[in-house]
Every structure is written in C-alpha cells, then in structure tokens.
Amino acid sequence: MALIVQKYGGTSVGSPDRILNVAKRIIASKEAGNQVVVVVSAMGGATDGLIDLAKKVNKRPNEREMDMLLSTGEQVSASLLAMAIEALGHKAISFNGFQVGILTDSSHTKAKILNINGDRIKKSLKKGNVVIVTGFQGRDEDDNITTLGRGGSDTSAVAIAAALLADECEIYTDVDGVYTADPRIVKNARKLSKIACDEMLELASLGAKVMQSRSIEFAKKFGVTIHVRSSFNNKIGTIITEEGDEMEAPVVRGVTSTISEAKVTIIGVPDKPGIAAEIFREISEANINIDMIIQNVGEQGTTDLSFTVEAADLDRLKDVMKPVEKNVSAKKITYDSDIGKVSIVGVGMKSHSGIAYKMFKVLAEKKINIKMISTSEIRVSVVVEQEKAAEAVNALHEAFELDKEIIYEAKL
Amino acid sequence: MALIVQKYGGTSVGSPDRILNVAKRIIASKEAGNQVVVVVSAMGGATDGLIDLAKKVNKRPNEREMDMLLSTGEQVSASLLAMAIEALGHKAISFNGFQVGILTDSSHTKAKILNINGDRIKKSLKKGNVVIVTGFQGRDEDDNITTLGRGGSDTSAVAIAAALLADECEIYTDVDGVYTADPRIVKNARKLSKIACDEMLELASLGAKVMQSRSIEFAKKFGVTIHVRSSFNNKIGTIITEEGDEMEAPVVRGVTSTISEAKVTIIGVPDKPGIAAEIFREISEANINIDMIIQNVGEQGTTDLSFTVEAADLDRLKDVMKPVEKNVSAKKITYDSDIGKVSIVGVGMKSHSGIAYKMFKVLAEKKINIKMISTSEIRVSVVVEQEKAAEAVNALHEAFELDKEIIYEAKL
Fold first, then answer.
1. Domain count, chain B
2. pTM score, two decimals?
3. Residues in A touching B129 (Cβ below 8 Å)
4. CB–CB of A65 and B83 under 8 A?
C-alpha cells in the first residue's frame, strides 16, 4: 500500500462539477490500494476575489489580515472536496493549516514552513479516510494564520509528502507536465518525461509557471519525488527527481522566457566599496526581488550598475530609488520595461563547455541583440528586446534539438 | 474606560462600503474612550452562498465539513473589518474562534459554548487594538471547527462579553430595537426601551427574529446587559436586562406570531405509558425540534397527540413518522402546515390572573378559532388558521394597549 500525496490547483477545483471530478480521481487512487492525502488550492478565482474585496476597504491591507482573509479560500475548497468524496461513498475529512500543525515563520503572505506534525493526518488515514489538507497556509508560533505566497500549495504538498515519508507527490495542474519550452511559443515543444530538481528549480524561477520554486527546493532537500500531471486526463506527466548520472543527461533540457521583468540601470555611480550594498539594502527592505545584476566599470572612477526586477514592482522601486540616487551620487537612473529574458537550462551544462557560446552565436545569427547576460552552473540567461524573445526561444529550441526525444534521458 | 462588546450582523457588513461604515462606528466608540471588542457575522448572503455550493457537491453534507466550510464566512468579514479600521487610521486585529479559544461541545452546526479564554483578546486590547472576533464559531476539544447555528454570532458576542466582564454588549442589527409587535404586521407597534431577559427569551423563541434565544440565556445566566440597536442610525435601541421589580412591569410586553410551523396530529394512539416517549425519541434522534405538545384523551382507551414542528422539517418528519405510526399502532397521522402561532409575552403575567382569558375573548370576538393552546409563566400561545394570524396579532396589540408608552416601565 503506497502513500500518495496529491495536490490540485485552483483550476482543477474551480467549480462543483470539477470538484466532483477530482473526487473521482482521488477515489480511483484509493481503490487502487493507496492511502491518499490531498492538498488543495482555493477554487480558481476565489483568491483574486478576496484580494479585490480587501482593496476595496484598504488600499494597502495589513499582511497579517490578508493571510487571515486569503486562507479561507482553501478551507472552502477542502471542505467541499471532502463532501464530494463522501457523496461518492468514501470517507474523507478536511483539515486546515492549524489543525494539522503546519508551523511556519511569521513572514505573512510569504511564510516559510518550519515544521509539520503529521500525527493527525496519519491517525485519520488509519481510520480509512482520504485526508484533505488546505494548501498555501500554516500558522506561526503565536497562532497567527500565515500564507506561503502564490503557488504555495505546491510547497504545502511537497512538505506534507516529506513529513509523511510519502511514496510520491502528484501535482495536478492544467498542463500535461513540464515542456522543453512553452508550447504557446514553440510549436514542437516536447513534454519531458523526467527532469532533475535543479533544472526544474531554474525553470520555475525563470517563468515556467508549472510549480513554485520553493516546492522544488523542498523536494530536493527531502528527496520527495514529484509527478507533475494534468487533472483533466490520465496521461503520465513529468517526474521531477533528484539528479541522476549527469553524464547521461542532455546538455540543454529546456528553453524558457519571461517578459514580466524590467531593467534598471544606475549610471555614473562612484566606484568605491559599499555602494552596491547601500543600493540593494534599500531595495531589499522594500521587499522587491532582484533578479540579474551586472556591474561594469565606467569612465573616470565611476561605474554603471544594471539589474532586473518584476515590472509589477517598478513603481514601488522608483519610490525607493529616489533617495538612493542622491545618497550614492549617481548621475542618472534609467528604467526599461521593454525587455524579455531568455534562458537555457540543463544539468548537463556543468560538464560541457561552449554552451553559452553556442547560445550567443544562435542569437547573433538571428540578429538579436543581447542586453544583459547572467549564468549559473546549469543555466545561461540573456536579456533581449521584448519583441524578440519568442523568436529567440524558437531559435534556441531548434539549435539544441529539444524537439527530439533523447533516449538516454530515461537513465536520469 | 468602559469595555464594550459590539456585534454586527451580516446585513451591517454586507459590502465593502458597509464595512467601512461599521469601522467608523467602532472608531467613534473607541474615541469616546472605550475599549472595543467586535464580533462579526459573515457578510450578508455569504453563508447562503456557501450552503448552495455544498449542496451542489453533496445533498446531505457531513456536518463537520459544513462547519469547516461555513466558518470561513466570518473569517472573511472579520479580516476585512480589521483592514477597514486600519484604513481609517486605527489599530485593529482579527481572530477566529480557534485563536481566541472559544471552546464548544462537538455538536457540529449547533454547538454550545463551553468556555472562552479571554487572554488573547485582553492582551490585544491592552496594545490599543480594536479586537475583531469571528462570531458563530468555535472549536471542540479535538480541534475540530464547530459552529453555533443560525444567529450564533449573537451568542458569541454575549459569551465574549461575559468572559471579559464587559460593561455592555451592543447587538447591531437592521432594526431599531425590540418592538411590541412586528411593525410589518402592526402599524402602531412601539419600540420598547427595556425588556426583561425572560420576555426576550420567549419572544426570541417565538419568531421575533431579533436575537438568537441562546444568546439571551447566556445574558441571563451571566448578567450581561444587552443593547439591541440599529447599525444604520444612532438611535438608542432596546436594553435587555435582568428582570427588575415585576410588579411595575407591564402585564403584556409584546405580541408575536410565526407562520413557519406545522401541526402534526397522531390520532388513536393506545392510551398507555411509554407511548409519548417512543414517539418523541425517534423525532429527537432525527434532530427535529418540537414546539407545542398537546395530548387529549380520545375514545375507547385511545388518545390523540398533537405537536408543532418547523414546517421546513416536515418532509424529514414524515419519514421518521412512517415506522413510528406502525410501532405505536396509531390510527392515522395528519399534517397541517396552514397554521399560525400567536403569542402574548410579559413578566407581569405572573402576578396577574385573567390574561389568558382576555386573550381568548379578544380572539373569539374576532371569530378566530383556536386550534391549540400552550402557556408558560410569562407567555400564552395559541395556534390559529394561518391567514388569521396577522388579524389576531393586531387585535391583541390593541386590546392590551401596547401602542401606549407605559411610564413605570422605566423602573424595570
């Protein structure tokens, strides 16, 4: 008898009919002899509806109260799903983050899970129940309700799978799995049967919206095997697992792009120690995430500093930068939201040289200008003009032959 | 500095604008020098919306899961109200039943409060917060979420007022207070400035929908003074308080009617011990509330038994009665939902005779036939044809001169 944790996203439980469909899927897994723990998101649209309500009474609502508000969404879908399973003749019980002891830190709206007490879940499983747990939420030491941020239900599911030593964590979503590229951009994008945690981490943080990054970190840390698959069909999806023999992994696993970022350049900053720290301290305190950072030496003892942020944070960033501009005696700050970031990812890169060079060459051949470059061990990212991003993704997908199945990939 | 508990019903917090209005009212009370604890219901319509959702996935949803589902409604309004108060520049914090330790028994959907731990509320008040608490809900010993039944927020408010030894418990609603009769039925119905707990108890259980009965029982038991008033204006409402000098109380305080009940008559039951017990055991196990019960000796060693139930329970009752009819060898069971119950209530009745007689005479003069009678120390109720109920209420209101202010009432 295997212990399976299944997670269903908001689209999958978006209506009473869909909830009943999910209930059938859960029951099928139960009848196949598994113990099933289910983690649910709020019904599709519910969280946005609550956020709209909050904005109508307070333009900048307190984050503790936001968590209090938003956490209700999952409690609704969890209890409805339990009812649906019972309507179909099986035992089910729902719990919220409080009840199953999902302890987090106190960073409201983006809390981190510290500990999960699996006792109550295990007890309820033993009684023959399907156990439904609200995703996305927990409580802090002082019994305040916390939430884990957008997509946090993935993290809840993986953390619960880790705490219960589950055999598998199935993440049900509205896509069939993880693709070599976004199928809306690349026609012959191919679904991957397996992908390494590290690769998925890079993809997740690069705009492939399949899973929340933190959930992959959890999976990696606790050795949880994730199966990303569609809740609308029975196809096998993509297995996310710990890195296998990297010699046999493909050099590039996927290409991804995001057009949601903006580039900020601080021109003519005095080239002396502590300046970067001063700039980024203010940004960090405003809770704005920085992505790529590049610094070049400029003329006459000054330097230019560029970085990217989510375009949605740009207005807040401009407020933050006003005093910073003076404090660091910068000449000028420019903002450019007309950018696209294109990345190639693959654990095989570690042992293959020339991958970055090949990427730049492909883009040069297409006359696509590179504005910024950043790399990790298993990723190369470039910033290009926004309107060229899709073309770049297609060119790279073709150049690295990602449409072709790689036989040895199965050994990952 | 007084400690005030205020309770706002679903209509009062039915929209973002109304929530902001309620926030202003709360702030006014705070700025007048009070410590304020606020108990809120779910936004008007929210609970019904959740019930509809539940019915779409399960026609007979599990009660534990219903509580899990419905308790979210108050958490939404509580957090929104806290945000609204903060938007207006004051400190506020919201708590659910779990967080403030509202311990109840485990009777899901109609739980009774066993204990309230006021520590967290007191601590938050000391920090200068307006404390918002979700009404209607608590948790049982096993950390399951429970709800207190329709109107349960009133009970939450009074119980919290009792636990905190609050100076007053203000129940804000969509009416100005408690009236001598329903103003929609009796044109010159008069708002009462004071009413005794016992009278309010009778009125509440007789269909005057101003407050939940259990909240009045709590108020009586713990000596909480309740002030029922409108959330839409600043008029003084009705004070519900412990009975004063009853000699000076009016004989009849109010007239009330309900048309939501149905009459059940079991004809030809053998007149022997244990029969009534058998009948009502089954009904009680089906969780159907019985109101009036009358038994008459019939012919040939048999007896007829009549009682009233909520008409909404009639279908379920008929299911229950089928086997009962056989078991007790009854001749026949008749059901009549075309009834209205009319009652007069007043603590002064205790010391005045002839009140019931006067009531029957007034109805006789109007040629209104009485189908059932039941009395308590401070109440006389009769069942009449449904279409005559309003006429009966008007006739009694006039006969007992309830439109006239009674000067000595102030001494209650």
1. 2
2. 0.81
3. none
4. yes
